[in-house]
Amino acid sequence: AQKITQTQPGMFVQEKEAVTLDCTYDTSDQSYGLFWYKQPSSGEMIFLIYQGSYDEQNATEGRYSLNFQKARKSANLVISASQLGDSAMYFCAMRAQGAQKLVFGQGTRLTINP
Amino acid sequence: EPEVTQTPSHQVTQMGQEVILRCVPISNHLYFYWYRQILGQKVEFLVSFYNNEISEKSEIFDDQFSVERPDGSNFTLKIRSTKLEDSAMYFCASSEEWTVNQPQHFGDGTRLSIL
User: Alpha-carbon distance B41 to B21, whole Å?
Assistant: First the structure.
């Protein structure tokens, strides 16, 4: 079974600073994918970035990057130059090869202060 | 950019009634999913659907729940005899393929309130 752990229930960051949201995972599968989603206060789930277990390079997507450390089973999301609009709930999720479901962590509520 | 559309955005229903939540997945996607998120909790998988069949379901998805693709565009979740604990945000999602690297794209959700 897969498990995702997000240990930061809330984070407060000053605008324009970089922020790292932690995610650790547990799986016995060799092939899996890791995803980050953003959930603003309006409630929708927005896909941000993906990292494959066999990818040798860390994924990047605009201001989002993923710090993937396979040996530590961590997949931290880094947001550079944070903006007020980044304030939201952020979920780390995992999908194992052969499974169709995404397994989500508890989420981290990020607040960007002006 | 194509998106998953869910209706209604908010549904209020009396306990014991049946409710149908509707979704229009992204048009070229073949795999469809329902998730739920009880207020303040994490997102939980309910069911996945492909080729007019359920392909995977969680222990939450019991006989009270059913899914259907009644036509070429809609994908529905029916909840029979609703209970107070069914109150949650229900998300529909779709993906183009089944492979592990394919992101699932979510709709805006339907907030279901059972009174």
Answer: 20
Distance (Å) from the C-alpha of residue B89 to the closest C-alpha of chain A? 8
Start-to-end Cα distance in chain A: 41
User: Which residues of chain A does B111 touch, with a Cβ-Cβ cutoff of 8 Å?
Assistant: 43
Opening angle at CA A86, ends B89 and A18, nearest 5: 135
- What is the C-alpha to C-alpha distance for residues A1 and B113, in angstroms, rounded to an integer? 31
Alpha helix (H) ranges present in A20-71?
none
Contact B65, B79 (CB under 8 A): yes
SS3 content of chain A, % helix, strand, coil (to 5): 5, 55, 45
Centroid of chain to Cα B93: 7
Dist CA B113 CA B15 (whole Å): 9
The rounded distance, in Å, linking the Cα atoms of A94 and A3 is: 8
Within 10 Å of residue A104's Cβ, how many Cβ atoms? 22
Nearest to B103 among A44, A47, A103 (CB): A47
pLDDT of residue A36: 98
Mean pLDDT of chain A: 95
Residue range A6-44, pLDDT digits in tens: 999 999 999 999 999 999 999 999 999 999 999 999 888
Over residues A46-83, the pLDDT tens digits come to: 999 999 999 989 999 999 999 999 999 999 999 999 99
CB contact under 8 A, A50 and B58: no
